[in-house]
Design brief:
Layout: E1 4-5, E2 8-9, E3 29-34, E4 43-45, E5 51-53, E6 61-67, H1 71-79, E7 81-86, H2 94-99, H3 110-116, E8 122-123, H4 132-135, H5 157-165, E9 167-168, E10 174-180, E11 186-188, E12 191-205, E13 210-213, H6 229-234
Antiparallel strand pairs: 1-2, 3-4, 3-7, 5-6, 6-12, 7-10, 8-9, 10-12, 11-12, 12-13
Length: 238
C-alpha cells in the first residue's frame, strides 16, 4: 500500500493509544508577570515545567510553554515581560497553589494562599536584574539621540515600571528576567510556546532579603538545590 497521493507523500501516523513516553525529571519554575495590561492589578504567578534554553550565543533565547486561557499567560503576553523563578525543594508546597488553581477563580488569591504556607510575596523590583547596559538602554546620549538603537535588548520605560511593580517569591534558586520577542506564539495544542530573550539572571540575597543581579557564572544547579518534577512525583504532588 502506497503512502503517496497526487499532493505528495502522506505521513503514516501511529495509533493515538500509544503508551506515553517515560517521564523525565524537569526543573520547576514559576513565572511572575505584571497584571498592568489586564483588567486586574498586581502580579500573576503560575507553575512552569516546560521552559528551556534554545540558543547558546547571545542573545540568550528561551522558550516557555504556557497553558492557554490562564491569567499568567494573559499577563505575560499582554505585558511582554516576566521573571522566571526557579523553585527550590522547600517550595514544593507552592506547586498546587500556583499550578493547580487558576488566577481567574473567583475568591481565590494566590498571593494570600502562598502567604499561608510561609512564602509571602515580596516587592521584587525586577530592575535589579538588568545589566548596566540594559538599565541604561533607554537613556539619551549627550547629543540628545537615544542610545537604545545600539542595544541588543531594549527596555522601555513601560517595561521598567512593570518590573518595579511586580512581586516575587523569596528564596528561589534562581531568577531569569525574560522579555517576550515580537513574534506569534507557537501553537502547541493545549499550550502556547513563547520565545523570549533572557535579559538578566538573579539570585536571592538572604542577608538583604532581595533579588540581586548575578554578575559572574554560578555553580550548576541540580536536584539538591532546585525543585524537580521527580520529587513532585515521588511525593504525589503531581
Amino acid at each position: 500500500h502506497s503512502n503517496l497521493n497526487n499532493n505528495g507523500p502522506l505521513l503514516a501516523f501511529a495509533s493515538p493509544s500509544i503508551p506515553p513516553p517515560p517521564p523525565i525529571s524537569m526543573p520547576v519554575w514559576s513565572l511572575s508577570s505584571p497584571l498592568s495590561k489586564v483588567p486586574r492589578e498586581g502580579t500573576s504567578m503560575n507553575i512552569v515545567t516546560f521552559a528551556t534554553p534554545v540558543s547558546v550565543a547571545p542573545p540568550k533565547l528561551w522558550t516557555i510553554s504556557l497553558y492557554r486561557n490562564t491569567l499568567t499567560r494573559e499577563a505575560f503576553f499582554s505585558s511582554g515581560i516576566g521573571i522566571l523563578q526557579l523553585l527550590n525543594p522547600s517550595q514544593k508546597s507552592l506547586v498546587p497553589l500556583l499550578g493547580k488553581r487558576s488566577g481567574y477563580e473567583e475568591g481565590y488569591y494566590k498571593r494570600e494562599e502562598c502567604q499561608k504556607v510561609g512564602f509571602t510575596w515580596i516587592a521584587g523590583n525586577g530592575c535589579n536584574l538588568l545589566t548596566k547596559t540594559d538599565a541604561t538602554a533607554t537613556l539619551d546620549d549627550d547629543d540628545g539621540e537615544s542610545s537604545a538603537t545600539a542595544m541588543p535588548s531594549i527596555i522601555s520605560q513601560e517595561d521598567r515600571s512593570a518590573l518595579e511593580s511586580m512581586e516575587l517569591l523569596p528564596g528561589c534558586a534562581a531568577y531569569l528576567l525574560v522579555k517576550l520577542l515580537p513574534r506569534p506564539a507557537i501553537d502547541a495544542g493545549d499550550h502556547e510556546i513563547a520565545v523570549c530573550e533572557v535579559l538578566g539572571t538573579g539570585i536571592w540575597d538572604d542577608k538583604a532579603k532581595q533579588v540581586v543581579l548575578l554578575e559572574t557564572p554560578s555553580e550548576p544547579l541540580d536536584e539538591t538545590s532546585a525543585l524537580y518534577t521527580s520529587l513532585l512525583r515521588k511525593e504525589g504532588i503531581i
